Amino acid sequence: MSGKTADIWWIFTRQTVTVARDQPVLNAIKLMVRRGFRHLPVTDAEWKLVGMLSAQDVMHLIHSTIASTKKDADKGTALLKALSKQVEGIMTKDPAYGEHTQSLLDSITMMTEKGLSALPLIDPERKVQGIVTLRDLVFLMGQGAGRLGVKVHEIMTSKPFFLAPSDTILDAIAIMATKKVRRVPISSDSGKSYVGMVTNKDTMRLLDSAYSYRVMRPEEAFRLKLSQVMDTGFGAIGANEDIRTAAWNMMTLGFGGLIAMNDFPGLITERDLILRTHKLKGPEFLRMAIRPQDDTSDRPSW
Question: CB-based contacts of 173: which residues, under 8 Å, 6+ apart?
Fold first, then answer.
C-alpha cells in the first residue's frame, strides 16, 4: 500500500471499542449510543474475539420481547429483564474476521463477498486490534476524485419500507426487526415524498434515556409518535446524481442513508454504496472507487 493508504488504514483500525461477553445488553446499548457505533466486537476475559453484536441484534431482542408480552403495562419491565441478560445471548457467534496485518483490499474483498457490514481485525492471539465498517469504505469513496459513472437510482432501494408520522416507535422497531433494515423513511403521503427518518440508533437512544437517565418510562417511549422522534434534518440527494456525490454527502453529513429525490424517490444507504455497487459493477470497479487517491484535482465541487 502507498503511505497515504497505510495512514488511512491506521486511522480506521485504532482505538476499537469492544464489549465483554458477560456484560448486560443494556451496557452495550450505552456504548453504542454514546460512541455512535452500530457494531461492537465481543470479547472473552482474555480480550479474545468471540462474537459480534450489532444494533440489529438489539432490534430483534426488543421486538421479540415486546411482541411476546401481552399487557402494555408489563412491556417496560419485560424489556428491562431482557436487556439485563448477557451480550453473549444475542451476539453473532464465531463471526468472520480478518488479520490485523492484511491489506485494505483484502478487507474490502472479505466484506463484499460475505455481505458484511463490519469486519473485526485480530492478531495471532485472536485479540481485537481494529474494525473496518461500511462507513469507513464510504468515507474512502467520498474522498476519491472524479465521478464514478453510476447514478444513485441504479443502486438505491426504489420502494423502501416507510411509516407515517402518526405511527409509533414500536411500529418502527417492528419493521427494522422483521425487514432487516436500519432506517425507516417517514412519509405523510403514502411514500410519494418523505418528511423524516428514524433509525435503530434513535431507538437505542430512547431506551438509553428511559433506562439510564429516567427521562421517561419505557412504556411512554414506546408510545411516542414518529413525528416526535424522527430526524427532519435527514440527508437528501438527487436520484440522478453520481454515487460519489452520495458518498461525499454521507461522509460530510454523518448520515448512513440518504433520501433520493426528484423523479426516482427512494433510499440509498452505505450498504447500497458498497455491496450493491460491488454486485452491479464487480470487485475491480469497487476497489477503484474506494482506493485513496493523492490527486484530488478532479474532485467535484459538491
Answer: 59, 62, 63, 66, 203
User: With 0-12 CB in 10 A as exposed, 13-18 as middle and 19+ as buried, what is 110?
Assistant: middle
Q: Out of 3.10.580.10, 3.30.390.30, 3.60.110.10, 3.40.50.2300, select the CATH number for domain 152-290.
A: 3.10.580.10
pLDDT digits (tens, 9 = 90+) for 84-133: 999 999 999 999 999 988 888 899 999 999 999 999 999 999 999 999 99
Three-state DSSP at 169 gives helix
With H, G, I as helix, E, B as strand and everything else as coil, classify residue 293.
coil
In this prediction the pTM is 0.89
Name the DSSP letter for residue 156.
S
User: Residue 175 is placed in which grid cell?
Assistant: 419493521
pLDDT in tens, 41-98: 999 999 999 999 999 999 999 999 999 999 888 888 899 999 999 999 999 999 999 9
The domain limits of the chain are 3-133, 152-290
